[in-house]
Structure formats: C-alpha cells, structure tokens
Amino acid sequence: MLPTLFLLSLFFAAGASKAAALDFCVADLMGPQTPSGYTCKDPAKVTVDDFVYTGLGKAGNTTNILKAAVTPAFDAQFPGLNGLGISMARLDIAPAGVVPMHTHPAGSEVLVVVQGAILAGFVTSSNDVYVKKLEKGDIMVFPQGLLHFQINARGIPSIAFVSFSSPNPGLQILDLALFGSNLSSKLVETTTFLDDAQVKKLKTVLGGTG
C-alpha cells in the first residue's frame, strides 16, 4: 500500500509541476517576436505588474484628422497577455469622429459602448452589410478579418471598450493603406476607379506619396 501511495504522490507532484510551468508565458519585450507571440520572460523575473495594466483609464488623444483614438492593451503593452489569446483596447471618438474601414487580421472583436452612442458595422466577404447604432451598454461583434468601422453617433465624446481573440490582433486601415502609403497614384486609380485629382487630394490629406 505504501509504495502505491508513494508512486501516486510522485505522479501528482510531477503533474502539478508541469502544469505550473505552462500556466503562462509573460512576454519578454526585449526578445524577438515570433508568429506565435513573444518569447517567455524568465519566470524568476515575473512580477504581479506583468498581469496588471492601468492604461485604459485615461482618454486617448482625439485631436487628429479622425477625431478618434485607440488605446491598446495588447501583448506589447501588457506582457501578461502573451500566449493567452486575448487582449483589450479603449476607443475614444469625439463628436464627428470616425474610425474608418479597417480590419484585424489576427482576431475577432467584441465592442461594448460605455458612453455616448456609436454607429458601427461590418461588411462580409460576400458584401453583405450589417450596421447598427449602439447605445450605452450595447455590444457588437466583428468577425476576424472583415472590414468594419465605428462613427460617433451623438454630439458628445463616445467611449467603448473592445476585446479581441488575440494578444495582438493586428490592424490595417483601408484609407491609410491606399492613400497614406507610397503605392503609386496610378495603381490606386486603376484599382479604385477614382480619378487622378481625387487620389492626389486624399494622398495629400493622409500623407501618401507616389
């Protein structure tokens, strides 16, 4: 009986040790970032602060052309998220502000409005459109990789918190990809059916060249 109990205690001890080693992989922000995330920080150097982030309590700066700001809490800002498949962000949209069409290639998004109202929507790969005015407390989901947008729908600053199914969901804003890059104007005109004057005007506004 005693040998059996001894073997069982060794089995559970080994299992507990292995589980503890796999509990988390706090990001080593000084190390390389791989397709699966950052490499792991030395466990001996992990502190409680790696699992706490306070940056979402402060409003983002909306004094820009979009009149909007996104404050991320991704793995680069919040190392404890590394490898957990989740992250968050704060969205501030001033009156007349907009977050233009954009995608998150690596994660789906859930948005909850906590102040004001936001007109939000997305376009599917078959070009179906889903749009809704969201009031305080409303939640909307945006499937991974689909173009979507948010617009202030009330004359007061609107605030939302968003969560993602990835510690680093990625971001590509369609307008900036077309008119804020060095993609040649001729190619933009050909692929968007816009004329030369429109393309050059938008490149001037958004800082593009070419």
TrEMBL record:
Disulfide bonds: 25-40
Gene3D superfamilies: Jelly Rolls
Residues holding Mn(2+): 102, 104, 109, 148
InterPro entries: Cupin_1, Germin, Germin_Mn-BS, RmlC-like_jellyroll, RmlC_Cupin_sf
PROSITE patterns the record matches: GERMIN
One Gene Ontology cellular component annotation held by this UniProt entry: apoplast
Domain Cupin type-1 as annotated: residue spans: 54-200
Keywords: Apoplast, Disulfide bond, Manganese, Metal-binding, Secreted, Signal
Pfam families: Cupin_1
Residues where oxalate binds: 104, 109
A GO molecular-function annotation: manganese ion binding
Source domain of life: Eukaryota
Localization terms from the record: Secreted, Extracellular space, Apoplast
Signal sequence extent: 1-21
SMART domains assigned: Cupin_1
Stated family: Belongs to the germin family.
PANTHER family from the UniProt entry: GERMIN-LIKE PROTEIN SUBFAMILY 3 MEMBER 3
Protein name: Germin-like protein
Source organism: Saponaria officinalis (Common soapwort)
Higher taxonomy: Eukaryota, Viridiplantae, Streptophyta, Embryophyta, Tracheophyta
